[in-house]
Amino acid sequence: NAGVTQTPKFQVLKTGQSMTLQCAQDMNHEYMSWYRQDPGMGLRLIHYSVGAGITDQGEVPNGYNVSRSTTEDFPLRLLSAAPSQTSVYFCASRSPTGNYGYTFGSGTRLTVV
Amino acid sequence: SQELEQSPQSLIVQEGKNLTINCTSSKTLYGLYWYKQKYGEGLIFLMMLQKGGEEKSHEKITAKLDEKKQQSSLHITASQPSHAGIYLCGARPSGNTGKLIFGQGTTLQVKP
Predict the structure, then answer these.
(1) Average pLDDT of span B82-103
(2) Which of A81, A97, B19, B41 is the most exposed place for a label (fewest CB within 10 A)?
(3) Measured between beta carbons, which residues in chain A are less than 8 angstroms from residue B98?
């Protein structure tokens, strides 16, 4: 089915390790975003992109990098994992037109020990 | 920066009762989105409001955006256990259509 695909679904990292969370969408959406969700804090925006080659910081960008070389993919890189980055990460995409919201992936649950 | 405040943070209601969740901003809202999330799952888009005074309904859920576009409410009529979950409001900051920020969420439990 069409949608937003996130991999992996679960990941355990040691402090200091790096990794990339993958996000791919097949709906030709120009807008893509990464969020983290922590208990009682809703969704907080990490980085977002309005098209290939264009990215911008959200509310909590520190410790994360992104790039957008294609319309379909928007990977999120953790440079040096810290326990504070233990969270559930969601990727989302949206077309700039139309009266509907972002389509969300099913999430990646990351634990940093 | 724009902040969205949701109230209440959590809610327990008896099945069949009506309930309202509020989402308030300190600034004008441009594109107000309501989502529902079941525990451990992704977010499901419910509806989007853009114009002051706009109201939309889907099944037993009605969302409104006030005239000043600074407050939205989500009303559920005759709640059912299937309505349980986390409800989140999101909004686009002015002039930036690619950026969507969220409130902290409202957890709803419906007792049979």
Answers:
(1) 87
(2) A97
(3) 30-31, 33, 48-50, 56, 96
pLDDT for the residue B108: 97
pLDDT higher than 80, residue A65: yes
pLDDT per residue as tens digits for the range A17-59: 999 999 999 999 999 999 999 988 889 999 999 999 999 999 9
Assigned token pair, A8: 């992996």
d(CA B43, nearest CA chain A) in Å: 6
CA distance A105 to A7: 10
Q: Of A35-39, A89-93, B40-44, B56-60, which gets the smallest average pLDDT?
A: B40-44
Residues B24 and B5: beta-carbon distance below 8 Å: yes
Distance from the B42 Cα atom to the nearest Cα atom in chain A, whole angstroms: 5
Among B15, B5, B21, smallest CA distance to B80 is for B15
CA atoms within 13 A on the CB side of A45: 27
CB interface of A with B, residues 51-110, below 8 Å: 56, 58-59, 90, 92, 94, 96, 99-107
Q: How far is B109 from chain A (nearest CA, A)?
A: 15
Provide the edge-to-edge strand list for the sheet that holds A19-25. A4-7, A19-25, A76-78, A64-66
